[in-house]
Amino acid sequence: MNASNFVEGVDFSLYLILGISVFFLVGITAVMVYFLFRYRKKNNPVATNISHNYTLEIVWTVIPTILVIVMFWYGWTGYRPMLTAPKGALEIDAIGQMWKWTFEYPNGKSSDSLIVPVDEPVKLNLTSRDVLHALYIPAFRIKQDVVPGDEKMMWFTAQKKGTYDILCAEYCGQLHSYMLSTIKVVDRSEYDAWLETVPDTSNEHPGLTLMKKNACLSCHTQDGTRLVGPSFKGVMGMKETVLINGKEQEIVVDRDYLIQSIKDPNAAIVKSYQGGLMTPYANVLSDEEINAIIDYIETLK
Amino acid sequence: MSETVVQQPSFFQVKKGLFSWIFTLDHKRIGILYLYSIGFFFLVAAGLGILMRLELLNPGRDFIEAQTYNQVFTLHGVIMIFLFIIPSVPAVFGNFFLPIMLGTDDVAFPRLNLFSWWLYILGALFALSTLVFGDGPADTGWTFYAPYSVKTGTNVTTSVLAAFILGFSSILTGLNFIVTIHRLRTPGMGFNQMPLFAWALYATSWIQLLATPVIGITLLMIVAERVFGIGLFDPSIGGDPILYQHLFWIYSHPAVYIMALPAMGIVSEIIPTFAQRTIFGYKAIAYSSMAIAFVGYFVWGHHMFTSGMSGPAAIVFSIMTFFVAIPTAVKVFNWVATLYKGSIDIQVPLLFALAFIFNFLIGGLTGLVLGALAADVHVHDTYFVVGHFHYVMFGGAGFAFFGALHYWFPKMWGRMYNKKVANTAFALLFIGFNTTYFPMLILGLKGMPRRYYDYLPEFHDLNMLSTFGSWILVTGIIVMVINLFAGGIKGKKASANPWNGITLEWQTASPPPLHNFDKMPELPAGGPYNYPNAKNASH
User: Fold this and answer.
1) In chain B, pLDDT over 70 holds for what percent of residues?
2) Residue B514 belongs to a domain
3) How far is A150 from chain B (nearest CA, A)?
């Protein structure tokens, strides 16, 4: 049994073309090498001018034409079903952002990795919060670009239980190669049970829960390590040089600065960090949520 | 009646000094200026490629940071594409040999030709300047995909302007060659008596002239968006990122043929010379160049099959892509058929030409996989694509460039390189090249995405193999470059026609005099490759 319903169509088109390719590569190379030695100067001191041969030329134009039409056809028949998801497919929202995947289920539950029931069509509604990404599940042979400002979709039926890699295939900046996740294919009953369990975050600071959910920690650490953005450790009250409209300015990091940096991050970028990379969260987080996040940052000393 | 021709001084000897070079109007000197500038950038970008392979030797950080790695692969791509492979064959060998092969004394617009080189240098300075200010070179990949290219703080604007300026250099070279081919062929040389290299340059020049303006405008739109915040491609300010991809590939796919067609032209010159017989299917090769150039305009969408393209668009772009394969296949068959009943002298330029065919076959056949809709969904944006285009551009166009260098070297410098060392360099290059890039095809089939600073452990073995290959490859490059320099300085004097070729460049002295010919060249009877010593076949 294949991992997904698309493996057969994709692999058939792939191996058909690779098979024909190997045949031609080996055949042409063999003929070339044979001629090279058979008609060496030593073996054939006088060459023959042969300018053309219409029969041969028609044959070697017609045969490739037929072959490429066949290749096209199987490429298309393997691709066509990907374009429309069956009605009644289980819909899950997949959100890409630098550099994290988030999956949101119909009942509002969200997770970093994807869990789906086996043998049921699943439709992923894909959106991006910042730049282009591409959701790629190599084992399923499917890939779809995730485009900001435009909802895209992909669908599949997982046919074999197990855990498979999810990768980002469209370059999306510094940590592109770390934008990884997994898809776990389970029985319907296990899926239902998982869907109903709410992860226990009661012992966790609500600000931390929000940060995990919104990919803050992809770029900002809690332990002082420098990543793409400044670490949160001890940041509150710190003196920093920031760039405002290209001019350097000394500031002390306070609640207002952090609110501004969440809502409009490029307004004042800390010197030595790269601007333009963080998505403005003004329309993503409410004021209460932003306050909860800052409350948590205050605890990181 | 005795024919006495006074040996004119070669184009090297007529004038000396730096200014006699950088302000020269002689197409041969301009070709050599391009060779040194392009050769320099090739070595720089190859060095960057070696760094990338070294970082990918093991998973995790080996010696550079993710951000540096992203900047390195972008700079590698920008330099290789815009400063090496697009200008390479036309600007160096086209400039040097097109007028000579047409039996004329220069290109149609010598001043414009010099201006193209200066634009090239200006563009190169823009590209290099990104290294020294702000947040450093762009980290977007050579494709500058929006909206990342609009958002990132690195020097995208300057990189994009570099490509914009280099585009003009390319347009002007194309324009110059089209007019030269139409107006300056020696008396008696119709289009169908032109050497196939001239045909290839003719097809290429039309692409340069007609497609390059599209990328110019597109890149300026990025600048407008970055500098003035005008929403064109970034959806957060009202733009459309997919629009960018269309505009970008409307140029950048035909640009692939700017890289490939001149290389095919070189192969079509080398093979008959070393087989000592006429090319098989002259017209098929000549017209297939035009067919590739034409159909190549309508295939750009195959770079976007996973972008959420509509079914009908996907069908059209896929089938057009397959149609490009047909004239390409015809060329390959014709080249191989040209070896049949030849009297083959196995010399290093021929080895490069045959290696071109082998590598280019792999590049072209893997292109079929990428043109097939279903298969592309799996391998798009993976190392399969990286392997594929290096097979086409490096194994194909790059090897043809090296072949041309070895083929025309005695004509350009009047000296011969050490042939044994050249053979060794060739072997290293061929083995190194395939060891570096073949594993990438397998990595892609296994699902490793491209532009990856770090990778999953299952991809380790093949990445190691590829990195080992890059060491063999770079050794080959070093041996070849040293051998050619040594040959140029102290190689044995070469005769006017060391390979017994019959196209017109072999009728003048090595190196040629300033005005190319001391006496009117004679067109070979019965076509440009009709070797007089070969038997004539009845068919």
Assistant:
1) 98
2) no
3) 9
* Alpha-helix runs per DSSP H in B460-533: 460-490
Exposed / middle / buried, residue A286 (Cβ in 10 Å: 0-12, 13-18, 19+):
exposed
Question: Which token pair is B92?
Answer: 């160096």
Please report the residues numbered 206 through 265 in chain A whose beta carbons come closer than 8 angstroms to any beta carbon of chain B.
none
For the CA atoms of A114, A115, A117, A120, the dihedral, rounded to the nearest 10 degrees, stands at -10
The domain in which residue A37 lies consists of 7-83
Residues 81-120 of A with CB under 8 A from B: 82-83
Task: Give residue A202's pLDDT.
Answer: 75
Tell me the CATH number at B352. 1.20.210.10
pLDDT in tens, B183-214: 999 999 999 999 999 999 999 999 999 999 99
Q: Which pLDDT does position B538 carry in this prediction?
A: 56
Taking only the tens place, the pLDDT of each residue in B47-59 is: 999 999 999 999 9
Structure letter (DSSP) for residue A136: E
B463: nearest Cα among B383, B393, B385: B383
Angle at A86 between CA A84 and CA A88, to 5 degrees: 135
At A256-269, the pLDDT tens digits run: 888 888 888 888 88
Residue B511 has pLDDT above 70, yes or no: yes
Q: Which residues of A touch B449 (CB under 8 A)?
A: 136, 167-169, 177
Where residue A273 falls among pLDDT bands split at 50, 70, 90? confident
Query: Which among B240, B308, B539 has the least Cβ separation from residue A144?
Result: B308
| Cβ under 8 Å to B: A residues 31-50 | 31-32, 35-36, 39-41, 44-50
| Cα end-to-end span (Å), chain A | 53
Do residues A140 and A47 both lie within one domain? no
pLDDT exceeds cutoff 50 at B1: no
- The pLDDT of residue B6: 59
Instruction: Determine the Cα–Cα distance for residues B301 and B314; give it in Å rounded to an integer.
Output: 7
- Among B151, B267, B335, B357, pick the best mutation site for testing chain A contact (most A Cβ within 10 A): B151
Domain limit, last residue, from A147, A163, A196:
A196
Predicted confidence (pLDDT) at residue B539 exceeds the cutoff of 70: no
**Contacts with B326 from chain A: Cβ below 8 Å:** 61, 64-65, 68
A2 lies in some domain: no
Give chain B's mean pLDDT.
Answer: 93
Q: Tokens 């009117």 correspond to what residue?
A: B520
CATH of residue A63: 1.10.287.90
Mean per-residue pLDDT, A104-121: 92
Amino acid identity of B467? T
Q: B409 is written with which tokens?
A: 């070297």
CA distance, residue A218 to nearest chain B CA (Å): 14
Q: Residue type for B83, please?
A: L
List phi, psi (to 5°) of B492: -60, 145
Same domain (yes/no): A100, A182: yes
What number of CA atoms fall less than 13 Å from residue B70's CA on the CB side? 24
CB contact under 8 A, B378 and A277: no
Q: Which residue among A53, A72, A165 places its CB closest to the CB of B318?
A: A72
